[in-house]
């Protein structure tokens, strides 16, 4: 059959309701001659033509794959719809976030049943910085109104001016993460813009009239240019980061005194500062850029607080006078086994966020007494973090807490009493009883002796006899650690006998910066081996068995999925790879693609032969073989800017020519505007999740 489906075949797809998977033939992407020559050797790539975005041949092929996926999963549609209703039934659709004080107002968002997007609002504060729910509500952005006539709408950043009279915000209507900048006058309601394209970070100076923003390169999407804009005037380009390994971003210190221009590469950071009340001035470097030195700054009481990895692999914090940033005084010493993730500074207290054995610990310092107190957390695996207290003069610290059993919760920590006050816990409708579920922190021993943490949750009546299905999730890249989190959607798995586990593999930062180092560059394969070793550990401990494991990962976690099923296809029953980074060599050898050059420090520079050979040895696309593979569902978005759609498309096209099994191999591409995270509307996103869960459940025989 031709790869391009004929009208008769398309008609068959729409009229045969329960056709079995084996009775339909998948689309076949034709081979077209294309050869890359790298390091003196020829590398054929017959599916290179799939990079032709916008061409009829490419779009017809992707649509044919979608039609095939729809046809072979048509019998799952009632189950998918039932799961959607089930998951939706747990969500409080009309809801309100906890109001947060910024300046003279309390800001919050609310959702309304039947509407896809949140509505961002504010109310003026009452005397004593109190929240007054009777104060008139001001609607700042109603994303539902803004999205009328659009298939996708994402809000990137949103920040009010110091006088609370103007709002700067950015929007993306395609999913390609190319945000446009707008201004809204919060007195008149008038909107101006777009005033700039491809905008990333945005910050106001304290004059209520000057905005600084960063834009990205139109081809590489590297955030590289800083602009200054006086309202009513024209943008002025004031800085361009020339080093292709660096991205820049602009922000502001917690006390609002300084603007901060941050320069970031994988292994080197640099900050420049400018007084917020001197927007016409020039940014100046805090410390010179030095290879391998990562530091960031904040300000309080005339001192710079510098988080640095100098003489501290997992960071420490020092202070220095603004005029003498190299004159360091210790503030928070490095501690063995403790990753200092950051310190939030306030007028009267500070909060250190530290990660120990993969779990976040929050310690609070009262400057008046010099005494530290740790906020206690009750469960063996959880996620916690601050960041919800924007006001420098706050007297309480707001933090979030969740676990695989406890729904997302918002607390205020009372400095005087040393107690946490629960403000809101995510409601799970339908009679959710956390006592019916239990979570644990397990430790698997990797093949090289490393101890790899696993977070796992199951019903308390779960039988550990090796017969139960288990969903194993993983990521393991960029030093981005995974936390144990609550998902009401996962209840649809747990209540059908599944256990859900997260493998905290190397490449993240769960066990400190070294945990990242051990899963990147020429040690990247540790990420894949760890995941496999975690799966085998769960089999050994009788949580599941090889024929009952479903694996899932997205983006760099999708690369993880591709790599582990090349290495151990026998271990997994089914795999869902979302927006997966499958075509490592072709992507990393093309410096014109978004994000490529800046990632040489994470994956390696394949222009160097040793790095090329190592990356080639694990690239999922390049290591496909003629053998049996598990059932595979690959999902992507046509407008994804992080991992281009052609990576998963080429992977599926090639694997179809090699796999010797009869297990399903499906590609589902969102052709409508959507991004790396999928659909922007909450109901649309939930429908996509319901389909993915229905497919994964069906692969272990669960269809109701």
Describe the model.
The protein has 704 residues and is an alpha+beta fold. It has a domain at 33-89 and 438-698: Rossmann fold (3-Layer(aba) Sandwich). It is 18% helix and 33% strand. The chain is built from 13 helices and 39 strands. An 8-stranded mixed sheet has the order 32-33-35-34-36-37-38-39, sandwiched between helices. Strand 4 (100-102) and strand 5 (105-111) form a beta hairpin. Helix 7 (525-540) packs across helix 8. The longest helix is centred in the N-terminal third of the chain and has 17 residues, at 56-72. The chain is globular, with a radius of gyration of 26 Å.
Write out key terms for the chains shown.
Rossmann fold; alpha+beta; single chain; 33% strand; 39 strands; 704 residues; eight-stranded mixed sheet
């Amino acid at each position: 059959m031709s790869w391009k489906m004929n009208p008769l075949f398309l008609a068959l797809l729409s009229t045969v309701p329960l056709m079995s998977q084996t009775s339909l033939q998948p689309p076949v992407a034709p081979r077209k001659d294309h050869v890359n020559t790298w390091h003196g050797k020829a590398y054929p790539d017959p599916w290179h033509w799939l990079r032709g975005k916008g061409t009829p041949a490419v779009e017809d092929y992707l649509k044919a794959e979608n039609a095939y996926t729809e046809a072979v999963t048509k019998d799952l549609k009632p189950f998918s719809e039932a799961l959607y209703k089930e998951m939706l039934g747990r969500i409080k659709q009309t809801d309100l976030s906890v109001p947060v004080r910024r300046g003279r107002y309390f800001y919050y968002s609310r959702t309304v049943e039947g509407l896809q997007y949140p509505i961002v609002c504010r109310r003026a504060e009452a005397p004593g910085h109190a929240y007054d729910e009777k104060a008139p509500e001001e609607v700042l952005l109603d994303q539902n109104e803004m999205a009328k006539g659009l298939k996708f709408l994402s809000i990137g950043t949103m920040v009010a001016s110091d006088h609370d009279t103007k709002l700067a915000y950015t929007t993306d209507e395609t999913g390609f993460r190319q945000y446009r900048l707008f201004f809204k006058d919060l007195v008149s309601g008038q909107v101006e813009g777009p005033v700039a394209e491809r905008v990333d970070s945005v910050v106001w100076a304290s004059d209520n009239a000057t905005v600084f923003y960063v834009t990205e390169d139109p081809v590489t999407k590297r955030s590289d240019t800083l602009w200054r804009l006086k309202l009513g005037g024209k943008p002025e380009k004031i800085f361009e980061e020339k080093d292709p390994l660096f991205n820049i971003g602009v922000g502001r210190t917690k006390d609002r005194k300084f603007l901060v221009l941050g320069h970031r590469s994988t292994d080197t950071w640099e900050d420049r500062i400018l007084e917020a009340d001197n927007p016409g001035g020039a940014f100046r470097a805090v410390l010179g850029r030095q290879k391998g030195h990562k530091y960031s700054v904040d300000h309080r009481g005339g001192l710079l607080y510098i988080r640095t990895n100098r003489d501290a692999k997992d960071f420490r914090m020092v202070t220095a006078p603004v005029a003498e940033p190299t004159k360091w005084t210790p503030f928070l010493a490095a501690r063995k086994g403790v990753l200092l993730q950051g310190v939030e500074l306030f007028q009267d207290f500070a909060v250190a966020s530290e990660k120990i054995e993969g779990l976040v610990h929050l310690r609070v310092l009262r400057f008046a007494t010099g005494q530290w107190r740790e906020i206690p957390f009750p469960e063996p695996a959880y996620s916690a973090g601050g960041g919800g207290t924007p006001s420098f003069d706050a007297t309480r610290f707001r933090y979030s807490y969740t676990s695989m059993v406890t729904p997302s919760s918002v607390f205020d920590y009372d400095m005087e009493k040393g107690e946490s006050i629960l403000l809101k816990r995510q409601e799970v409708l339908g009679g959710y009883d956390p006592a019916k579920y239990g979570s644990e922190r397990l430790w698997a021993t990797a093949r090289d002796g490393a101890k790899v943490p696993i977070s796992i949750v199951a019903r308390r009546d779960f039988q550990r006899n090796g017969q139960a299905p288990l969903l194993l999730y993983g990521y393991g890249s960029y030093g981005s650690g995974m936390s144990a989190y609550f998902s009401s959607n996962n209840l649809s798995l747990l209540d059908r006998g599944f256990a859900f586990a997260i493998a905290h593999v190397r490449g993240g930062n769960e066990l400190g910066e070294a945990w990242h180092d051990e899963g990147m560059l020429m040690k990247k394969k540790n990420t894949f081996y760890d995941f496999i070793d975690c799966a085998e550990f769960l089999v050994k401990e009788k949580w599941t068995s090889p024929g009952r494991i479903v694996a899932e990962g997205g983006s760099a976690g999708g690369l993880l999925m591709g790599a582990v099923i090349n290495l151990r296809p026998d271990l997994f029953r089914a795999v869902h790879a979302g927006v997966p980074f499958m075509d490592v060599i072709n992507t990393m050898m093309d410096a014109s693609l978004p994000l490529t050059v800046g990632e040489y420090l994470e994956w390696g520079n394949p222009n160097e032969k040793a790095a090329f050979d190592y990356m080639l040895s694990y690239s999922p696309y390049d290591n496909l073989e003629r053998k049996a593979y598990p059932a595979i569902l690959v999902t992507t978005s046509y407008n994804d800017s992080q991992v281009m759609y052609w990576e998963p498309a080429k992977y599926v096209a090639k694997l179809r020519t090699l796999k010797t099994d009869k297990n399903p191999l499906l590609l589902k591409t969102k052709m409508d505007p959507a991004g790396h995270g999928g659909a922007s509307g909450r109901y649309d996103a939930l429908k996509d999740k319901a389909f993915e869960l229905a497919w994964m459940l069906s692969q272990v025989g669960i269809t109701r």
